[in-house]
Every structure is written in C-alpha cells, then in structure tokens.
Amino acid sequence: MTQRKAVVALVGRPNVGKSTLFNRLIGARTAIVEDLPGTTRDRIYGEAEWSGVSFVVIDTGGLEAQKTAEYRAARPGVAPLARDSARYVTEITNQARIAVDEADLIVLVVDGKDGLTAADEDLAEFLQQTTKPVFLAVNKAESEQRQLDAAEFWALGVGEPIAISAFHGIGVGDLLDLIAAELSDSLVGDEREEDVVAIALVGRPNVGKSSLLNTLLGRERAIVSEIAGTTRDPIDTEIVYHGQKISLIDTAGIRRRGRVEPGIEKYSVLRSMRSIDRADVAMLLVDGVEGVTAQDAHVAGHVLEAHKSVVVLVNKWDIVEKNTQTMVEYTRQVRADLQFLDYVPVLFISALTKQRVQKVLPTALTVAAERRHRIPTAELNGLIQDAYHRSPPATKQQRPLRIYYATQAGVEPPTFILFVNDPELAHFSYLRYLENQLRRYYPFVGTPIRIRLRARS
User: Fold this and answer.
1) Which residues form a coiled coil (predicted)?
2) What is the CATH number of domain 377-455?
C-alpha cells in the first residue's frame, strides 16, 4: 500500500560540503519540505524532487564524531594527532557502511579545492565493493580552472567526476539529472505485496514494543531487555491474521530532539522514522504507569505529520492501581494530553500478561480499512454545504468565504478538496470544524483526514 521512496546518501570526509549540497538538493523541491522531527539538531534527512522523481536524501555528515572525553580517556597513551586520525578513519568507515546499508544510490562528495586526498581514496576503495550506483561530485569547483582540475578524481575509480559548486548551485542540476535518470530506471517500491497491511509499533524507548511483538507472534523475535533502546533496527515480520497479511514493524525507541547519541543510535532513530513513513498504521505504545509524557506527544506528532493512522496502546496495565473508573478517567486524560489525536482508539493492554492483546490486531485492521474509505461525492457535498450553512465562517473581511464544491481526491489518508472563492479567507479553526462535521457521519476511526482548499478557476 505505502511505497518507499528511494534513498540517496551523501558521503565524504569532513568539510567537503556535504551539508551544503544536502540543503541545495532538498531546496530543489517546489514544495516546502519541513525537517523531520525527532532526529538530532542536525538536518540529516530530507526529501527532494527532480524531473518528477521524488527521493530521500541522507546527509551522513551527521556521523562525524565529536572529540569526546570518553574517547580520550579510552586511549590515554595515544598522542592527540594519532587519536584524532584513528577516530577520523573509524567514523569515515562507519559513515560509508551506513550509506551502503541504507542507500539505493550514493554520492561521494570530494573537495575540488583541496584536490585528491588519501581519505578520498580510502572511501572510494570501500564504495567500489558495493553494487549500488555511485556518483562522484567534485565540490567547490566554482572557477573554470577547478572544473578542469576535477579530472584528477578519475583516479578514484568510481566513475566520471561531476564538477559542482553546492554553494553557488553550479552543476547541481546536472547531478540531479543523473540521479533522477538512475532512480527512474530502478524506482524502489516497497517490497510488501499490495494486500499487506503494514503496522509499526512505535513509542519512546522501553515502553514494551518488542514485548508486544513477541506476544503477538507467540515467540521471541526481538531482544527484550530492561535497557532502553535494545532494539537497534526496525524488525519486519509478516504474519497472516484471519486471512489478512500483516507486516509487523518493531522500531527502536524514538527520543526527543537533542537526546539522540551520535553514530549508530542516531541512525537507528532515522530508520525508525522511515519505518513510520512506510507503515499504514502506527501503534503508539504509552507506559500505563507513567502516563502520556512530552516524549510520547513528540512521537505522536511525527506520526501525525506523516499522515499515518494511529491506535494508542496503554501498556503495563496489569501493574496500574485502578478501580472501576480508572479506565474512563485514563482515556479522558490521554485524549487531553494528545488533543490532536482525539479521533484515535485507546486500548489498555499488558504485553507481559497478554491482557486484551487479542484486540490489538482487529483494531489495527479496522483503522486500516477506515484509511481507505471514500465518501460518495453527492453525499460529501451535502455534508459540507449543510455544515457551512449551519455555521458560516466568521470573517473580518468584506468578502466571506464561499464553498462551491467538494470532492475526495484520494485515500490513505482520505483527502478532500474544497473549491472556494479565496483560500486565504479560511481560518484553520474553520477547517477543523468542517473535519469534525465530517467525522460525525464518517468517523474515520484512528485515521487523519486532510482538507485542502483550492480557488475555483
């Protein structure tokens, strides 16, 4: 159902301009692309589009390690220059390995001003071992002479050097042409079959995602530990439930911005975010003892931004002190803490004792079905016009907002286009009102809906 975009990784030694090129590539989109929440303060993940081909760009510059006190303490007898050289080689190798593992296409960025270096040769030698396409971008080639000098990088053995200036935009269009042509010939689709529902288990570290996965599967599939973050990579497991194929994705815990350690864990979080992007339904686990935290709201915010359907699972319910009203009061509190997800179902479970776990998959499939629901056009227009006339939008303008026609433009999630006299006249609160009116008749349980305004031509 959900299709995965191809991934392009930018690799190179420090200060060759990877981040500048990254910003230039994602700036090539005509639409505004917001930073992906939940990673570090570095912008290491963004979307680009060129010649009708959309792809994800990873700036592996985020892996360049800081000179930590822990590292110095670990090697007290090594001179500073030797320590830094060892760290540098290790980080470059890690960077290349992650790029090869994560990417569908790799761009090796070198510095045309510095010329060919031993570190460039080491990286190129490593990348020669992969079967994935590699493009060589010679950056900082602003002058005609540097563009000519770029020919020396043929010696790296990874193909034709492409002279660019990421800062000035010189040659970047040529690089994008090559990337788009390569990806259009081998567009990456999700490996799941069309009738498979993808369900991602998401949440902050140590809320019981892997325990729930093991309970659903009936066997130990993921490492379960009291140590937060023991699930490093997303784990996909396909099952068949009442004839429906389901892909269960267990993800590493998503931490708040600024709490992600450099290196492997940063990319574990990145992979978890990408897992959400390719899921149909996100099962958001909350610790029943601790309640909804700011970190939970942060994770929920990313799921919402990705337009995924949601079920909230309050885990560890077996150890919560409760009475006959606890569940009702807790549900009310969850909806208050996650106000923007007031349409999602809330289940109270225990992955450990299996309490109500039998309701998890049926609820997820119900939500997945809602995600694909369509409203007949005539009925949709009747609902919108009725809502409009019962409560016209307040306006300080001389012209009031007028809604002429509505149509459902798509599903997954349900998306509606309203043709109006002027989109600028609509306040977001009125769009929320229209959404609530639609949900009175079509609840779209657990599923976000999008309402877009378009000026009638």
Assistant:
1) none
2) 3.30.300.20
Among 379, 397, 399, 394, smallest CA distance to 433 is for 394
Question: Is 315 annotated for ligand binding?
Answer: yes
Task: Say how far apart CA 127 and CA 137 lie, in whole Å.
Answer: 14
203 known member of a binding site: yes
| Alpha-helix residue ranges (DSSP H) falling in 247-293 | 264-277
411 is in an annotated binding site: no
Token pair for 258: 């600024």
209 is in an annotated binding site: yes
Question: Is 79 known to sit in a ligand binding site?
Answer: no
Q: Is 251 annotated as a binding residue?
A: yes
Check whether 193 is labelled as a binding-site residue.
no
The annotation status of 142 as a binding-site residue, yes or no, is: yes
Size of the chain in residues? 457
252 appears as a binding residue in the annotation: yes
Confirm or deny that 60 is annotated as ligand binding: yes
Q: What is the pTM of this model?
A: 0.60
Angle between helix axes 172-185 and 18-26 (nearest 10 degrees) is: 70
Kindly give the confidence (pLDDT) of every residue in the chain, 457 residues in length, as a single tens digit, with 9 standing for 90 and above.
555 678 898 988 888 988 889 989 987 433 323 333 333 334 466 778 898 888 888 877 644 433 333 334 444 444 443 444 455 455 555 656 766 777 889 999 999 999 999 889 988 988 898 889 999 999 999 999 999 999 999 999 999 999 999 999 999 999 999 999 999 866 544 444 568 899 999 888 788 888 898 888 875 444 344 433 434 444 577 888 888 889 888 775 454 444 444 444 444 455 556 678 778 999 999 999 999 998 888 888 888 888 999 999 999 999 999 999 999 999 999 999 998 899 999 999 999 999 999 999 999 999 999 999 999 999 999 999 999 999 998 876 678 899 999 999 999 999 999 999 999 898 889 999 999 999 999 999 999 999 999 998 7
Give the end-to-end CA distance of the chain in Å, rounded to a whole number: 33
Tell me: is residue 59 an annotated ligand-binding position.
yes
Tell me: is residue 17 an annotated ligand-binding position.
yes
The domains spanning 6-185 and 197-371 adopt the same CATH topology: yes
Q: Is the CATH number of domain 197-371 3.40.50.300?
A: yes
Considering the domain 6-185 in this protein, what is its CATH number?
3.40.50.300
Establish whether 18 is an annotated binding residue. yes
Look at phi and psi of residue 169 and say left if phi exceeds 0, alpha if psi is from -120 to 50, else beta.
left
In this structure, are residues 110 and 120 in contact, taking their beta carbons and an 8 Å threshold? yes
Domain ranges of the chain: 6-185, 197-371, 377-455
